Amino acid sequence: THERTAASGVCTRRTPLNASTNMRLKLPITCFILEIIIIILFGVLVQYDEGTDAKLWHDRNHSSHSDYDNDFYYRYPSFQDVHVMIFIGFGFLMTFLQRYGFSSVGFNFLIAAFALQWATLMQGFFHGMHGGKIHIGVESMINADFCTGSVLISFGAVLGKTSPVQLLLMAIFEVTLFAVNEFIVLSVLGAKDAGGSMTIHTFGAYFGLIVARVLYRPNLDKSKHRNSSVYHSDLFAMIGTLYLWMFWPSFNSAITAHGDDQHRTAMNTYYSLAACTLSSYAMSALTAHDGKLDMVHIQNAALAGGVAAGTAGEMMLTPFGSMIVGFVAGIISVLGFKYLSPVLESKLKIQDTCGVHNLHGMPGILGAIVGAIVAALATADVYGEGLTDVFPDVASGEISASDQGVRQIISLAVTLGIALLGGLIVGFILKLPIFGAPPDTICFEDSIYWEVRRSGNVMPLSQQHHGTTRRHTLIRPG
Amino acid sequence: THERTAASGVCTRRTPLNASTNMRLKLPITCFILEIIIIILFGVLVQYDEGTDAKLWHDRNHSSHSDYDNDFYYRYPSFQDVHVMIFIGFGFLMTFLQRYGFSSVGFNFLIAAFALQWATLMQGFFHGMHGGKIHIGVESMINADFCTGSVLISFGAVLGKTSPVQLLLMAIFEVTLFAVNEFIVLSVLGAKDAGGSMTIHTFGAYFGLIVARVLYRPNLDKSKHRNSSVYHSDLFAMIGTLYLWMFWPSFNSAITAHGDDQHRTAMNTYYSLAACTLSSYAMSALTAHDGKLDMVHIQNAALAGGVAAGTAGEMMLTPFGSMIVGFVAGIISVLGFKYLSPVLESKLKIQDTCGVHNLHGMPGILGAIVGAIVAALATADVYGEGLTDVFPDVASGEISASDQGVRQIISLAVTLGIALLGGLIVGFILKLPIFGAPPDTICFEDSIYWEVRRSGNVMPLSQQHHGTTRRHTLIRPG
Amino acid sequence: THERTAASGVCTRRTPLNASTNMRLKLPITCFILEIIIIILFGVLVQYDEGTDAKLWHDRNHSSHSDYDNDFYYRYPSFQDVHVMIFIGFGFLMTFLQRYGFSSVGFNFLIAAFALQWATLMQGFFHGMHGGKIHIGVESMINADFCTGSVLISFGAVLGKTSPVQLLLMAIFEVTLFAVNEFIVLSVLGAKDAGGSMTIHTFGAYFGLIVARVLYRPNLDKSKHRNSSVYHSDLFAMIGTLYLWMFWPSFNSAITAHGDDQHRTAMNTYYSLAACTLSSYAMSALTAHDGKLDMVHIQNAALAGGVAAGTAGEMMLTPFGSMIVGFVAGIISVLGFKYLSPVLESKLKIQDTCGVHNLHGMPGILGAIVGAIVAALATADVYGEGLTDVFPDVASGEISASDQGVRQIISLAVTLGIALLGGLIVGFILKLPIFGAPPDTICFEDSIYWEVRRSGNVMPLSQQHHGTTRRHTLIRPG
Fold first, then answer.
1. Could you tell me if residue B70 is inside a domain?
2. Pfam families of this UniProt entry (chains A, B, C) (predicted)?
């Protein structure tokens, strides 16, 4: 029986029970406390906004033309696309590991479900307290998903080496710092970053990379046989890649101004991604000594065009400009996977499981710089009356376009500063031995946190069932 | 060759040919007769509604402002999300079984495609005969998908133990009874149930559970080695789970009133699901002796928050209230999987393959009760002019809010009654031996109804091909 | 070690290195040249249209009512559904092959990302030069995706037997010819074909079939052991099928006129597909000697109803008519897979890997004929003022309805002519030996173009790593 199973694709080695990784109390306590705190804070602080409150909407609606003015119809389809990116996109992108699919999808699910609630509160504190209350609707839902995306990027850097309790803790701090940074960048500094090249991608990537640095494991080689993909796990990962790729135009345009702004942002992103895909394939074949394409590049680098169009996408970047940005992003990203990541690991001791530096870090910085340049070049001649939507302070004459460009660059520096400092502190918190991190020998392994059924269909005779529904052949620690 | 194959993940044991399970004539006859009846009835009874008919729309549109008033733009994005839940969500959620993926996705596809046509007719009879004709458009399409969802819930209870012909028969009766119950609950009793906690989830679950009871198989243990998941089948099931989870806000809001109602319902459901996810993870770890998470709970219980917000979601439940509801639903659902399902099987002889009682049954009842309470607490002060959308009879002064609460509770009782009685009768019909149910020894097995290719890439020498496209290495009964 | 791996589902035979199939220079050069040409042409020729340009939109908007008039809100949700069909739908539909999943999804991704850019240019030349510039927005994005769909259909015919460079070349020519044919059919001849029964499906299928004919491989039997599916590859393919099926209503309605037209087209397609599903299941069981359903039929024939409703879907076909069309399409398609494809291969030497003749070819012609008939029967009595949207030339009195029917039939003939002639020429170009087609012995095999990781978790000792992130156990040619 054992040999049968061992030979059948999914490995079933016995996982030694480790008291510290046992989640029986740690995970429920963490989840329950967090959720109860959130519920209490929602009860005290959160209210429907004008578009979701029955009374307010109907009061306002007396003088308006149509239910269509409700922001729901402008943004909900975009929200759902973003939602799919967060849960399917990020979740399945990380299933490439052969023995970590449950955790990739499952922990992604858990921390995203937590983070979007926490983000509603944190972003509400900084963005929109109205008489002591946080007003929420579809726009806050999108913003909460955006903030969640940032946490999931950081998750990619530490994938396979952290317990769910560590991840929830990371999410608490990261969401909070995200909201602080977002407030400084967008509200204090007045920068534009609708698709989050800075606030989401750069922030999430460098935060996660520093956490990974602090959690460096010199003996991670002991788990290296699991730190790779198998055939079907790469196909599952492609589901994640493609949903991210397809819906990135919705992501970047989800909270831009109504009308031409949403429309233009989506289209710019679409062309940036298309160009990025061609340069990623080209570079993947070019950098392989035998010219064979590498799934790692396809799954990741082809998305860099979306990241890099995150800031400038809403501006008059033109499809021409978008394609150049995407084209360059794909090249940078593949080169990063091929030549930079090994150096980061060997020299800087940053073990970046998913290569988020190549997908979100460098392309995010590229996007921020492109955004600064395009902002600095903005003219009333090109934008017409639309300048008010994109650069309100420039349109009002308060600042010049080049001032706006400077704002953008300062915002990038601030974002990097907060991400690096925050990641450093949070990394040391996560390092405390009580949170159940897996030992070096059992990283990238689902069975340490999940009941993993045995592949094959032979059930041990010893297993006694008395009428349970949906029985499982479980692999229990020996 | 045989050993090779046997060792390769997917088992290829030979299935003995059983005359009664042979679908060569039974399935085509059933499908053809049903489809021809449907086509004739559509020809006689069905017409485009005002939004889909070229003449009617343009006549009406003369006096209106915009093509945007067409209900298509209000509801089609929601419809597509619901559509994905029906075909991908339910279909893949059931692929967790190691040898029943084709049937889970494939029979789901078949009965859904049938049920949505039949539902259009049955719901049309009861809801909207206009001068002897059924008028259809995007709202009837959503309602048809909703009714289909109910049938798919019941399918979950009998998964692996029924032939496609049995399932089509079940769908005929269940759709019909669904339409009757829906008519009584919504039109006669005047209850509100936009997301179907009662009419869809409670109805579908208890109908299916009683059918499963009548079809009880004392010797199902003979197939128990197939009644479990393997690693990749659990990942496929997570695709189903996540699509259901992500799009549930669209489901509950798909047919609520335009404007704030759709907006609020989507947001309430979003928060209910998020809270439910945290409590499901917590309970899954807490109830496992070694603290390991169980995929069964994650795949199912995390969705209970959507079910439980099905009735009250459109009301002024507040995000705070939604989170409490979701939080409780997740706890109840995991406890049900862990402690109640084994009792249902051993004591009540209900073999509930997917645990629909835990995902749809109990959370559906919870949702109905919550809906009754929130309805009874409704005040003009909170809803303002919006009261007309949510509780028209209360707004008009015809009844009091507490009367509305009573209506809701009566509706729950009626739903349970019709589901239980209907399921009992239909179960006995399905028990007739002519419909090709699988024998106890070959339940949960695709190869009884599907041509299943052999895993691995060795083709027997004996197999003669003469130019067929897309050749298969088939496993034929010996 | 080798035996372990060999026994584990995914085969890992060593692929002999073949100089001509090495893509190290060919693929990067092709991708870079094409992308740079596209970027230059976009820089010179392409501009934002009125809905995406900040200045133009705000100028126009002065006199209009709402940002809602922006075409983005009418079409973007449909666009995203179409986008999913192109990348997930087509991509995963072709993953049924046991050893060709990376190529199916990955080459689909590459050629689609290229084709949508090229199509923007080619369609722009013929459809909408405004003062020497191509104006683009969401409608051109949908049209580019449509054109891409046609290329992907042709890809299905040659799947497994062509290199990525060949596919890119095919895309260049096919997109160009598609734009020519589309211009003739829609603009010169004045035919209607919103869902592309003719311009997309018939064109793509017959173009691809002729290419496959020219690329005929008499010794393809040497790879026949890989030209089949395994259990999980069929489940991956079902993801593709279902997304195509669910979103086909959006596909057919994506560029029809606003209002009732989009609404009606979506609904007609919905019912056509539902009826088609039932007839496909019926025929699949009926044509199998043991009554077992065949995944090939379910994955493909059930979609024929969408193809066949592509032309008439926007007309007053009625749900009744739609169901008849879908019902017939499903029957034709299964019969084609069962009886016609083997003849095409043995007699006409057309090796149609995915059976596109059965899914797109015959149902496309059926759809064209149905469209001609329904057009010829159009009356002002039925369409009212809506006649202007659907048949503007008939509404204006310029031609009669039967003239419109004749236009439709001529358009079908033209489409077939251009597809067959174009495919013939392109086939001979692709036959040049320099493009790296795989040898007959290694068709349907990912490892010729992709780095394929070994299944199982044993890493050869010889492999030296120095700190690379995301290590792979690669199968390198011996």
1. no
2. Ammonium_transp (PF00909)
Q: Confidence class of residue C454 from pLDDT cuts 50, 70 and 90?
A: low
The residues near A454 (Cβ < 8 Å, ≥ 6 apart) are A5, A10, A12, A473, A474, A475, B230
Residues A19 and C333: their CA atoms lie apart, in Å, by 59
* Residue in B with minimal Cα distance to C284: B28
The predicted pLDDT at position B457 comes to: 36
Q: Which band of pLDDT confidence, cut at 50, 70 and 90, is reported for residue B65?
A: low
Cβ-Cβ contacts under 8 Å, A238 against chain C: 91, 105-106
pLDDT at res. B69: 87
Q: Which chains touch A (3 or more CB pairs under 8 A)?
A: B, C
Q: Is the dihedral of CA C24, C236, B142, A71 positive or negative?
A: negative
- What is the C-alpha separation between A355 and A349, in angstroms, rounded? 13
In a domain, B75, yes or no: no
Identify whether B453 is part of a domain: no
Return all residues near A313 (Cβ < 8 A) that are at least 6 apart: A194, A195, A252, A253, A264, A265, A268, A269, A272, A322
CA closest to C72 among chain A residues: A263
- Provide the pLDDT confidence category of residue A127 given band limits of 50, 70 and 90: confident
Total structural domains in chain C? 1
Contact (CB<8Å) B383/A451: no
Burial of B46 (0-12, 13-18, 19+ CB in 10 A): buried
Provide the token pair at C174. Answer: 């096919």
pLDDT category at B261 given cuts 50, 70, 90 is very high
Across the interface, whether the CB atoms of C88 and A319 are under 8 A apart is answered: no
Cβ distance A291 to C25 less than 8 Å, yes or no, reads yes
Instruction: Name which of A30, A39, A453 is nearest B230 (Cβ-Cβ).
Output: A453
Question: Which residues of chain A make contact with C459, given a CB cutoff of 8 A?
Answer: 224-225, 228
Residue A90 belongs to domain with CATH number:
1.10.3430.10
> Domain span at residue A291?
81-448
pLDDT band at B454, cuts 50/70/90?
low
Q: Which of A47, A52, A68 sits opposite B260 (nearest CB)?
A: A52
User: What does the pLDDT read at residue C18?
Assistant: 58
Residue of A nearest to B68 (CA): A68
Across chain B, mean pLDDT equals: 91
The chains in contact with chain B, meaning 3 or more Cβ pairs closer than 8 Å, are A, C
Q: Which of A32, A70, A456 sits opposite B282 (nearest CB)?
A: A32
Element (H, E) at C46: strand C46-48
Q: pLDDT over 70 for what percent of chain A?
A: 90
In this model, does residue C98 exceed pLDDT 70?
Answer: yes
Q: Report residue C65: phi and psi, to 5°.
A: -85, -35
Instruction: Out of A10, A25, A136, name the one closest to residue B319 (CB).
Output: A136
